[in-house]
Amino acid sequence: MGAYAGSVPLGPVRALAYSIPTDMPEADGTIAWTSTTLVVVEVEAGGKTGLGYTYASACVVPLIDQVLAKAIQQCDAFDVPGAWLAMQRSVRNLGREGLAATAISAVDCALWDLKAKLLELPLARLLGLQRDGVQIYGSGGFTTYTDDDLREQFSRWIAEDGCRWVKMKIGSDPAHDPHRVEVARGAIGEGGLFVDANGALDMKQAARLAAVFAEQRVSWFEEPVSSDDLEGLCRLRDLLPHDMEVAAGEYGYTADYFRRMLEARAVDVLQADASRCGGITGFMRTATLADAHHIALSAHCAPALHLHVACAVPGLRHQEWFHDHVRIEHMLFDGAPMPHEGVIVPDLSRPGCGLEFKYADAQQYRVH
What we know:
There is one protein chain. The protein is of the alpha/beta class. It has helices at residues 60-71, 80-90, 99-118, 123-127, 147-159, 177-188, 203-213, 230-239, 255-263, 279-292, 303-310, 323-332, 359-362; strands at residues 13-27, 32-45, 48-55, 134-140, 165-169, 192-196, 218-222, 245-248, 269-272, 296-299, 316-322, 333-334, 343-344, 356-357. Helix 3 crosses helix 10 (279-292) and helix 5 (147-159) runs parallel beside helix 6 (177-188). The protein starts with 12 loop residues before the first strand and ends in a 6-residue tail after the last helix.
């Protein structure tokens, strides 16, 4: 193991953005898209380079280069919480949520990767292992998909990747969703079925659809109404069938957001996203909050980014195996995890998060 006396000052911080087209048009209950933007961050110190990233907008690159890099330039590479706090303070007048939070998330992930590399440890060992691997659920089933597209994707996740659960988007055409859910159930047999409305429905629509979905044994209703409507989510927890859970939290950027959601008893399962909620540091803080409220935690999207911290936090149920991000991570990152019997496992022979970005392969998608 490497040994360092005294401090290790942080070196250059670099950020680049890439726009990767989807393999086919995609939509959920509120928006449609044809590409996904990846922002990659590197931080140097002590002859090592830490890697982090977020799925956000290319407009966060100048924020990282001009604001966050300056905020942490006097920080020590081993003092990641101190650097995180310095970044939070630097965006006080910009607003801590939204794009600023995603930028901080990418830098924080790079800092944790860097610290683990300096110590020549896999990140999961540095954070403290609570589990050897993480269960995944297949996530896609976009509202633009045909019935055949839905069947192919879901049956593959069950048969090839060993997923115990799959999740589909609903809400673009609520009247058609019962049919789509029936198609999904036919494709997965006895597997667990989740639906995600992305906040597209109102209370009455959500309650009415839930009663129909119960016939197809849907066990998870994600954002049936807006995640800002904590009272509505709480009411739906009481209205939905007893074996159908309410999940939300993917748009949480701060600990205060998650605290309010948990105190409102708005969810059965809290979702958190390390690419949005303040990186590894923010994800661990969120996990502690969820554990204190006795609420299960699910990691949202970006499976390669979450893998090590997901093995280290309490109360984690599973990791979202989101189609877009899985595809991008396997295209552009060496070391991206592959599922075996529905589980992904960190490579403990590699230091840090175990990922290397393929800059040459990504060059064609560069936008900033």
